[in-house]
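Example 3.2
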Amino acid sequence: MERTAAQPGGFASGVIDLLQQGSWASLPSGTIASLIEGGRVIEFPAGQTVYAEADAERLAVVLDGLLRVYMLDSDGRQVTVRYARTGDLLGVPALIGGPPPVFAQTVTSSGAAFFFDIDRVKRIARSDASVAWALAEESVHRLYDVLEELAGNAFASVRQRVARHLLDLAASRTEAGGRLTACASQQDLANSVGSAREVVARVLAELRDAHIISTSPGRVEILDPVRMSRELWFRSRDKSHSP
């Protein structure tokens, strides 16, 4: 579903507020209002591909839900490089480097994003140093995200690695009704994250007690994908879960 500002329930003020609270806090509201002219809101069902690597570059801000950005190997294997939540920008580095070799997919039961008129954003950035600087800052943040992902592979606790693996498994095969279900036994998970089955069983019990997942033999349903995504490793956290 697609909506423009001219339709009932125009979104302009909400998008401006969201951007000022996060990614573009340094930009005046008038500048952001100019940047979003000509844009549109698109709503997505669970599992829908929002962006594919063959597409032209696009710039968007997530309005609702959780999106997974991943790369696809020639043999069909996937690796997630980022999870984007409400208020996060998508596609800023592509403004300079061109279309990225990634896909973006809705993980939650539904999602929505505001897509900018990319030619307009480029034109304004070339004439307004404050916009160009804001885009440069965002590009640096995305670089730092990649470094976080690389470090997470080495430093994440078992709980964090299990959360990542379950999200990746479930996001690759959304079921009817938008349910996110990972089909894997405790031993499969233990093998994938490099731990013992007993440790993985304890992690699953903790996540189940927190009402983040439900489990049945060989299946794990993610009840709250956004909370699950907050289980992932971040260097800035003072404390991590015990392995």
